[in-house]
Every structure is written in structure tokens, then in C-alpha cells.
Amino acid sequence: MAWVTERRDVLSGLFCLLTVLAYLRAWDTRAGDRLGGKWYLASLGLFVCALLSKSMAITLPAVLVLLDFYPLRRLRLSFPDGLGAIARNLLVEKSPFGVLSLACVGLTLAAARDNDAMSSLSDVSLLDRLSLSVHSVAFYLWKTVAPVNLAIMYELPEKLDRTAWPFVVAWMVVLTITAVCLVLRHRLIALAVVWLAYLVMLAPVSGLVQAGRQMAADRYSYLPCLSWSVLCAAGFSWAWRRTAGPHGEPTRTRSLVMWTGVLIVLGLAALTWKQVGVWHDTETLWAHAAVAAPSGRAHENLGEVFQDRGQLAEAGSHFESLVRIRPRYGPGHLYLGAVRAQQGRTDEAMKEYAEAARLMPTSAVPHYNMGLALMAQNRTAEAIEQYREAVKLVPNYPNAHNNLGMALAGQGRLDEGVQHLREALKLDPESAGIHSNLGLVLARQGRASEALQHLGKAVELDPGNAGIRNNLGVMLVHVGHYDDAVAQFREALASDPNLREAQVNLDDAMARSRQGTPKPR
To answer: pLDDT tens for residues 439-456?
Structure first.
């Protein structure tokens, strides 16, 4: 079973091809130089479907203009009305396509701004964007010709080196192909048109407009590289016709052409089969990406997989790779710190949390995590300071208020503790843990009625939590409701038979119930 992702690319590609086919059909059914009306409208409707599938289809109007230039040869001054035909083509026929594209661009940019997905010029400069764009042009060509070592993520480095060999080679490839197209523009005009179509369709995702952390993405090649597929198909068709015998009979050369095509298809099919296996599950997907195109994102996701499994050594190794690749990525230090804390390596955890706090000065999470680590070492006073900093940065952080309240209560500052626990409960009223904690602290204040209310609510919210049921049972014993307490302790043991405290409390409650021990004062 493989993941299913980016179906919109395939769907958009289908509608783009249908748009072009309908447009060519409109040319076949033309009246003079005017396109056939029904097929023209069909092409426009299919273009709308392509845009609705994915906004990357916005460049299709420019591709239709290139088709007018070649092979339709509509954009030539030798037409009877010369410039009038060109104006009609661009202003009348293509205007509806252009308006739809511009509307889609506006909606896409607005959505990207709302999601804060666009990179600013301070993050990625104009020169960096130009280098990324040229790199993308060569990169997708290479991955199309040799689709090996494909990865879900090709991450943008934190500092782009424009003089690195991949960028230098990319410039050489792009300039060479451009020069060849210019020199052969009369003899191989199809090559020049395909090259232009490829550049046009790739432009929106080439890096000129940078969004996210990816430097490239395999799916971005689907639509632009269709032009190269068409050129290759045309080349095979030409070779098939030219290698026929005098009367169309097979020849050795034609057999060579046929078997070349068969081997290419079989090779691509084998590579596809192998690549599908990469998408088997999260671990195989990102493990492959970490080898094929090492990135912080790959190690981050692998680290989370191993951490969820409790394989802390493996998780720590991947998070170490993450902070090595992206040393200025605050969450990476948080992840590594959390693993080190789970391993009992508290000093290392505190170091990573401190670095995360430096890199993320408005985030409360590093301070909250430092509070957890300090509490694990019984350094309550220091933990309180970190929790206070967390709630100062994010006042509506319920877990920080909860932990601060319990830490204060642990120092005997019950009134302050109750204040923060009530604030936590106001922010998260459906939290069984907060209700339970508030009940315990209220019990210490001698407010048994309120304590029972909150402990009862905690059990209602999380009936399978043995610890909470045990706490409620203890409170019920305290007020002399022994039979109810026995029921709670039994439920606790049913949920967790190894909870020794519940067993001891059960024995005590049963003894009190049999003896009719008076209610404690």
C-alpha cells in the first residue's frame, strides 16, 4: 500500500492536455483564421477545470500563443491582414484565458500571504532567486532524463552558495541549450518552441517566487516536462516513418527504433515500481529522502517516528543531524532537548532548550520544557521561574498555568497554585488532568466539597485514567464515603492492575467500611 499524494498535479495535467487538444481541434474546424466556436469554448472550459485543479496551469495561455507560432503558424506578418490577425489572436482569443489566469494568480498570492508562506527578499535575495530558478531548469531536465534518487524533499539550505558546483553546472546547461535553440531556430524550430514552453510553465515554481523550504520538488516537473514528452514522441514518430522500407515494410533500423522505445518504457516502468515502494509508509519515505537528498526535514520526520516508538537513541541521532544541517532552526533544538530529557540527560536537554529559547524569543515552549526538566531534578524554584516566563510570553497557555500551579502548591503556596490552576481550567475546561490537579490542591486547603466536584468531573472526562480514579477514591475516604471509595479503587485497578497505591487504598477503604470507621475530622 502506498501513500496517495499530489493528485491535483495529475488532474491539472490531464485538463491542461485536454485544453490543448480542444484548442487544436478548434483550429481544425476554423473558418478562415477564426477558431471553431464550440471547440474554443470547450478549450476555455477545460482551462477553468485545470486552474481549479491546481493554480500552476496559469501559464497555459502563453503555451497556446507558442502553439499559434508553431506548429499552427498563425502569428506571421504574411497573413492577409497582418498585424490585425496577431492582435485578434492575442487580444480577442487569449484575453479570456489571460483574465482567468490573472484572477487565479491574485487568489493564490492572497492565500499565500494569509498563510505566511511567501519568503521575503530579506530571506531569499533576488540573486539567490535567480540562481534557484536556473538550478530548477537544469534540475528538472536531469530528473526527467534520469529519474533516479527522487526524493519527497529537496531542502533549501539556510545559506545559499551560488558558486557551488550544482549552480555553476546549471548555468552552463541552461545557456548551452539556449544557444543551441538560437543557432538552430530555423532548422529545428520545434526545439526552440518546446524550450520556451518548458521555461514558461516552470516559471511559477522555479524559485523566482519562493515559498516554503523546498529548493525543488519532483511534482513541479509534471506539467512543464510534458512539452519534452511531446517532442520525444514526435521524434519517435518521425524516426518510425523514415526507417520504413520502400513499400512500408519493416527494416532493421525500424526494429531498432521500436526496441529502443520498448526498452525506455520498460526502464521507466521498473523505476516507477521501485519508487512506489519508497512511499510504503512514513519511515521508508523519509529514510529514502535522507539518503537521496539529505535534509533537515527528512531527519526531523524520522526523529519523530522513532521518538513515538520509544526508540530514543535513533530519534536522538536524527535530531542531531537536523540541528547540524539547520543550526538556526529552533524546533530542531526543542526536539533534541526533549529526547535528551527522556534519556535522563537533563544537562544536555537544558542546553538545547536554552538554544531554542534564544532562536525563538517569542515562543513559550522552550521555557515550558525547561520547567519540566527542572521539576524532574526537583529544582522547583528554578522550574517556577521558567513556567512564569512561559505564561508571560503566552498568557493563554493552559499547560504552563497548570504546571506552575502545581509547582507553587508543592512549595506550600496553595493560594497562588489554585489561582493558576483555575486560569488553566478556564483556558481548557475539558482537561481531566487540570480538574484533578485543582481538586487535589483544594483538598489540601480543606475545601473538600470543591475538591470532590473537580475530581468527579475529572473521572467523568477520563474514566479510564486509573490515577484520577485513585485520587477521587482518596478524597471519598477522607469524607467518609467508604463504599463509593471502594468502587473507585476497584475501577482504578481494573484500568491499571499494577497501580499498587490503588490496591493499598482499596484494602484500607474496605477495612474502614467493615469497621464503620467514623468520618475523619
So the answer is: 999 999 999 999 999 999
